[in-house]
Amino acid sequence: MKKCILHLGFHKTGSTTFQQTCGASREILNQNGFFYPKFSYPAEKGNLWNHSGPLKMIYKRGHAEIPSKSIQKRERGKILHTNQTRLLKALKSDQDLLLSGEGLSCFSKLELERFVADLKSYGFAVEAFALVRPPYSFCCSAIQETFKSGSFNPLIGLAQHRAPSIVRNTSLKNRNRQIKTLQQVLGQQISFYPFSKAIAHPQGVVGFCLDCIGIKIKPETMIDPARIHNTSLSNIQARVINQINQIVADDPNGKHCGKLQHRLIQQATAQLDSNPFRLTKEEFGLVEAEYNQVKTELATLLDDTFIEETLAFSSSEIDQTAVIQGLAQTAAVLAIQSRRDESSQT
Q1: DSSP 8-class letter at 316
Q2: Is the pTM for the entire model greater than 0.85?
Q3: Distance CA 213, CA 155 (A)
Q4: Where does 176-303 have alpha helices with state H?
Q5: Which domains does the chain have, with CATH numbers?
Q6: Rounded alpha-carbon distances, angstroms, from residue 112 to 52, 62, 115
């Protein structure tokens, strides 16, 4: 019986590196019995080997099916048409299938049920695995990631310039709900591993994932892709960007701040410091009760090895010169880009 291996992330566990390695090494994977599909993506998409988006487009609508020509009237429809066709081709193949996407773990229960039902209806035995960071580590990583797309988080302060606070909709980011859904739909077909185990592997996350899949390829024989680096924000950088995001969100013209502007802000503040972003003790104190609840729930869902971590905190003291430098550099970069935009329109 042919099988489909689902690599479900989670987010911030080296998924992008694994996907790009698989995408660059499709022929090698094919020689070892696995087909790693290539889907179509919007022009602005960065990682073209993450299967989450294309599969989400299909399964939020229904099941994999022969595409209707009527959906091709718009660009998004053309992409959906292409991806439905490519997915059906993969499902009808006699080859084992490898799919990877951290966003797959965030499918609704219905979407996930549709997805698994299609795989089984085409004769696949489904095996899934996911890497899980401990609660505090995931929370810090997930918070700074949201800043890149313009989100503002009131929990994150900026020394004396802005004190941390919590509002009703502030919650500690975690993946407990997704784990429950995956367990409900996949049952014994999914395995969870602590992220610490993956990074301790002699060949890193890629080597660990290949072991989980059962592919006997040394990672160094895989093709090293021209990677799209998903670089984490440093401590001061994250806090400055969070403050900028608040100002932009409060401005009536803030909605015009798009992906390019957010990327420029990130580049402009990249040299502020090298310390990793962590909560301060004051910030953690505001969510400590919720953290303990999340931690207890995760241990119940999986086991105690998934909550083992050492809590490290950022200093509440911040170099004021670095903050000013970051804001000045950001203003300069955005001003230069604005001038370029004006020149291109004339």
Answers
A1: S
A2: yes
A3: 39
A4: 176-186, 195-199, 204-213, 235-250, 259-268, 281-301
A5: 3-135+173-221 (3.40.50), 137-171+231-345 (no CATH)
A6: 12, 11, 5
Nearest in space to 69 (alpha carbons), one of 80, 61, 58: 80
Residues in the chain, total = 346
DSSP state letters, 225-250: ------PPPBHHHHHHHHHHHHHHHH
User: Cβ distance 93 to 35 under 8 Å?
Assistant: yes
End-to-end CA gap in the chain: 62
**Strand (E) or helix (H) holding 98:** strand 96-100
The token pair at 36 is 């790693």
Residue 298 and residue 10: Cα distance in Å, rounded?
14
**φ/ψ of residue 214, rounded to 5:** 90, 20
pLDDT, tens digit, for every residue of 278-304? 999 999 999 999 999 999 999 999 999
